[in-house]
Design a protein that fits this description.
By secondary structure, the protein is an all-beta fold. The chain is built from no helices and eleven strands.
């Protein structure tokens, strides 16, 4: 099944699919991959939510989620137990064992919850007492 988003095709593959028209949801179950241009997301289950105009409102990927996000300025790879993506805002919310690697700026972030704005590159990270936020980056050598 292909879903159009901002004039770019989104392709979703999975072992099974269940559409719930009244709730405006489509559930993709088992080995789910969502692809758009060079971006992809993989998880055990993905739910696509639509608004009243049948535009994509939100994607929710659950279970062993991994992803790659690329654009002109950035390249992110990451994983989490759950990833929620809001296409209108270009915002990702990673929950549970959340990890993002910024491959352009050579930075690594992990925490319990990470909110990433792919337009600005801003990230908000929350940890907990047992597992605090971790931020790793390379120092540039002074010449």
């Amino acid at each position: 099944m292909s879903i159009t988003l901002f004039a770019e095709k989104v392709e979703i593959t999975s072992d099974s699919m269940k559409a719930q028209n009244l709730q405006k949801e489509v559930h993709f179950i088992g080995n789910v991959t969502v692809k758009q241009l060079e971006n992809w997301l993989h998880g055990d289950k993905v739910i696509v939510y639509f608004d009243e105009n049948n535009e994509t409102k939100m994607y929710e990927a659950i279970g062993s989620v991994t992803f790659e996000i690329k654009n002109e300025k950035s390249f992110y790879k990451g994983s989490a137990d759950k990833v929620t993506y809001y296409p209108i805002k270009s915002q990702y919310i990673l929950t549970g064992k959340a990890v993002i690697d910024d491959l352009v700026n050579k930075r690594h972030i992990n925490g319990d919850i990470i909110t990433l704005d792919t337009i600005t590159g801003n990230a908000n990270v929350k940890g907990d007492k047992k597992k605090p936020v971790k931020f790793i980056f390379d120092m540039e050598k002074v010449k």
